[in-house]
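Exercise: predict the fold of this chain.
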Amino acid sequence: MLSITSDYARSEGCPEPCLRRIAETGFTHVHWCHQWNTDFLYDACEIEQIAAWLGEYGLALCDLHGSEGVEKCWHSPREYERQAGVELVRNRIAMVARLGSDVVIMHIGSEPIRGEERSRYWEQLWRSLDAIEPFARKHGVRIAIENGIFPQLRKVLERYPPDYVGLCYDSGHGNVSKDGLDEVEALKDRLISMHLHDNDGTGDQHKLLFTGTVDWPRLARTVATSAYGKCVSMEVSMKNSGIEDEEPFLAKAFDGGTAFAAMVAEAKTTP
């Protein structure tokens, strides 16, 4: 079983052609990433259409990338924007539950430098996570916080239990920060989602697996002994791949995901 992001080619517009090509390539799952960084609210009719497409193409939803929000931002210092951001997250929670999955991945932004602004940032984020928790539990959905700055991530994981908040490990972010593999090893019991892609260590490039400098054997060993129980899930993009056509790009992504899945499987059987 393999999953790939729905927005490998584009993050807005009708997703149906991408879903069809994903299924034709042989993927079994989709990481929903359309509208991941906008204030877009999915209406019930749109969610039902996505459900119909997934059914038509025999795809299951691995998880969903929620939006941190732009003006509807769940950690905004402006209270009305924070409240709107909470509704944006609830929209994605209801969506992922309807589509048959149980994880929404979220960014938490960068902690401000100034003391007063920093305190306000955490105050607002705690308010939002507290407000979202009953809704998430009602729908059987957990929030996976994506790694950016690990001290911030640890602060959230220490405050909330694993049946509500877990870790989404983004291998690209981890490779750029240089400490990602050490950190995910330490936090592997909280791992509930993965964004797998590669880069050369200088920036977040979302390249195909095995085309950059990520230490894939080490990551495979960590995943094999972690709490993660879903399929290999890639968040790769055509943008920096050097491949212009979707079909060959997806084929190479499939091969890379298959190779990494084999590495994880082997690591599980190796003492």
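Check your answer against the key: The longest strand covers residues 60-65.
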